[in-house]
Amino acid sequence: MKIVGINGSPRKGKNTSYLVEKALEGARAMGAETEMIDLVDFRIEHCNGCNHCLTHDECPIDDGMNSVVSLLLDADGIIIGTPVYHLNVSGLLKDFMDRSRYLKMVEFKMKNKIGGAIAVAGLRNGGQELALNALYNYFLGLGMIVVGPATDGIRTTMGGIGTLYKEIDQENGRIYYQRSSDDILAVDSCFALGKRVVEVAGAIFS
Length: 206
Hints:
By secondary structure, the protein is α/β, with parallel strands linked by helices. The chain has one domain: Flavodoxin domain (Rossmann fold, 3-Layer(aba) Sandwich), CATH 3.40.50.360. The chain is built from six helices and eight strands. Strands 1, 2, 3, 4, 5 and 6 form a six-stranded parallel β-sheet that branches. A two-stranded antiparallel ribbon has the order 7-8. Helix 1 packs across helix 6. It is globular, with a radius of gyration of 17 Å.
């Protein structure tokens, strides 16, 4: 079984990447093969609205998107992580999502693959759930099956949600931040998410 993680942050090896890797660690604990994709390593142009994909199961733009899609088509499950800069997925990830249109217009090429999502923001209520909803709708639009952590003892239901907010100094108003690796609930829920993706994929493809 193959699970692919996508880091939708323009920053490699940082907070979003850490939580996606934690999810992949959970997938490996269930016996899956995993691979991480940093979208920033690929040149992905904006969708230009040419509508070629309405009648062809391909995108005429020849760029890094082709390499990413080939990895996704070989995967049984996909876990996408995004930083939340302004109440939604990153611009880098949105370009990827828009360019995925051809994966469903003629044929549902991603049908029944398992999708899991992770969102990280600087604030506690920084738009993580809005970004997760965008990713869930993306998965559903491609005919994929959406899962969350759904693990006893993990008190979260939406998906992997990380916050870098730590505390505020009430005297001077200064906000202190932490790394995603310090957000224990996020770490645990992302690990559980990876396990859950493999669990459901096994039930579907066995």
